CbbQ/NirQ/NorQ/GpvN family protein
Amino acid sequence: MPTPHVVTEDTTDASAGPVGRVRPFYRAVGNEERVFAAAFTEQLPVLLKGPTGCGKTRFVEAMAHDLGRPLITVACHDDLTTADLVGRFLLRAGETEWVDGPLTRAVREGAICYLDEVVEARQDTTVVLHPLADHRRTLPIERLGETLVAGPEFCLVVSYNPGYQSVLKDLKDSTRQRMVAIEFDYPEADLEASIVQHESGADARSATDLVRLAQAIRRLEVPGLREVSSTRVLVAAARLAKAGLSLREAAEAAVIAPLTDDLALGASLRRLLDLYLADQPHG
């Protein structure tokens, strides 16, 4: 039976706040940190909207650190069921035992529960979020005949990419309107270059050239190009260059090739390498 991909990150000691961990690297673009902190204080759920690889997940990790809360992340997918989130009975050593799902664990533990790419889950699954996302802040567990009431330290956070997913899927209005929305986009060029340089350890020139390439790709309006180059893939390219590939080789492998399997479109994208990348031997 399919199970959700769940990552639990303990960022706290119950009494001492963040425990000796370095804050996950995140540089604010606007007021997103203040909006998130205010929503957490007022016990409001948060919706993060933005393109793939623009920093939404890293932002949540940084905020969990700042707020001193554990973070439980669920990668949503088509087969995700309500039981995957809430829990189920399992047979262990000949006995039936209830096992909490990640959403239930987050409510019990006062954690931040982050549902990444929430619209990938079926709409009948996301309905379970509704009583948690409004004034009730409750999670009914029908199989146990129990209703959990979320404490003040629990926070529900969901994310999705409206530009890509609205073609086939979208977040239900009844879910969306329960949440405080924070919009993300790729950073301005100078900031994005500094992020790429910091995350990869590459030199400033390589980072700047990669960002210029990405901006050119993002400006394209061509059929068949469903995604554009994210900050995340620029970091990957910069790391390849730092490891010894030429910047062109690194960008072709990490930036261009993953975008499309169409030969003509791929050739057009590769021509941008000649325009925007200096042939540096390494980062």
Summary: Confidence is low (pLDDT under 50) at residues 11-19.
